[in-house]
Amino acid sequence: MLDYRAIHEEFLLCIPLKMLNYSADSLPHEILNNVFIRLPIKSIVTCTAVCKTWKSLIQNPTFISNHLHHSSNNNNKHPLLLFRHCSSEKEHYVLHFDNQDFNEYIRFDDFPFHGQSYDGIFHVVGTCNGLIFLADDLYGYHKFFLWNPCVRKFVKLPKPNITCFSHDAYDASVGFGFDSKTDDYKVVRFVTLEEKGQKGKAPPAVEVYSLSTGKWRMVAASPPIGAARGRKPEAFVNGALHWVALRKTGNKFLNFVMVFDLGEEVFREIALPKLLDQNGDEYWVSVSISAYGNSLALFQQRIYRLSIWVMKDHADASSWTKIISLADVVLIEGIPRSHCIPKCFRKSGEVFWNCMEDTSAHETLRPKSLKILEFVDMQILC
């Protein structure tokens, strides 16, 4: 059903103000707030160019928070999915509605950082409330950006405390999320220092960047002993960041989920189901996690088989349930399953895959229905 009231309010903003016998500055702020809060982000950006009063009102932190809350409560029908299209000449991003037709919502062709990455392309760590966190960290570099493409603004983060120039060899993972307790966005950097080739035996160092202060600081809380598994994707669920981590016990390695609560800034861990390889070890088992509603999903990949697990009750390790196991069958027009990497879930419960033949696909957890989405050089980000 169409929301005619919202359409009428948006239409009024497009009428020349002289026709309404108003100037932009004379409209009461209460009325403007009531109208602006119902508008989509594209219209909000247009309104910032009308006058200084409107721009100031829209960029006020209170309005931003209220607009975000309103949007979250009223747009759950069709959340947005972010896709990155990459080539050697250009890098751009597209938002699609997570609906049956997968319509394009908006395209960002003016990527402001193209050519600035030492690695060739930026690593997109995560997205939260319209902000995209980008990292240039593949080879130990430490260039980070927070980017809001809708308003064409970005923040370059300062140099962190631990770099390749201040310490010996290290491995670092990063995460990004929103702390509702302090109404602040935070970047968490999880650094595993290597000593004499030993990794995963000592507690890692952790530092947090706060957008409100614009600074990095070391975190005093002691994380569990273990090493996050490189640049594997993290999952932001229920106010906490989650990484797959690896711990060495005796001569064996064990995978587990490292959890960092952004509000309390404390650590905990969640056990994973047993994922042992034929030698009784987990070092060579490829695992990654994804948000699954308000809980977690686990992708376990072997050469010839993929298993997907879902934690039905968040933080309850006993609730891990295997929901599907796929052998190395041909899924997509001659492409074997082993050439397809699961990325994340749609709201409908379908799984997105990134395949090596310039084709992306998603399928339901019952692999009978498969749709082909043609995107060249694409990385899927949810």
Model description:
The chain has helices at 4-14, 29-36, 41-47, 52-58, 61-74, and strands spanning 80-86, 91-97, 104-108, 123-128, 131-136, 143-148, 153-156, 170-179, 184-193, 205-210, 215-218, 227-228, 235-237, 240-249, 252-261, 266-271, 286-292, 295-301, 305-311, 320-327, 330-332, 335-336, 340-345, 351-355, 360-363, 370-373, 378-381. The protein folds into two domains: 4-73, no CATH class; 112-327, Neuraminidase (6 Propeller). With 382 residues, the chain is mainly β. It contains five helices and 27 strands. The strands form seven sheets. Strands 12, 13, 14, 15 and 16 form a five-stranded antiparallel beta sheet that branches. It has a four-stranded antiparallel beta sheet with strand order 3-2-1-27, with no helix packed on it. Strands 4-5-6-7 form a four-stranded antiparallel beta sheet, with no helix packed on it. Helices cover 12% and strands 42% of the residues.
